[in-house]
Amino acid sequence: MRRFVTSLAAAAVAAATLLPASAGAKTEPIQVSVQPSAQLVDGGSIRVTVAVRCAPFGEPFEANVTVSQDDGFVWTQRGLPAATCDRRWHRYTVVATPFEGSFHRGTAYVSAYVSRMDPATSEVRQGQDARTVKVR
Q: Which of 26, 89, 84, 92 is nearest to 65 (CA)?
């Protein structure tokens, strides 16, 4: 009986030392980088590029780019393609057409947001970036 209790206690200690390692496993965030310049295209739209890096995880959940100019009087929001998550940087280019008006050369404010979700656990990982870009 003593041997059984000792074995049970040893198993409990081993499990307790293993649990914190798995419970505290490092989660890798999604990295998002809005590129510093954008191109004006015919019709008053802007072509913006966003770089994304992420580890394999879950499924695409939400990914978008918001562009505004002239204190927000000209703006839009567009979806980004589903990011490839293989721990390498991937660039995605989107043509952002304003809801009203036209974008123009100068500066614009661009923000990008990417998230993925594990459907089994509902854990969500996300990343975002925002900056003023030069529109050429």
A: 92
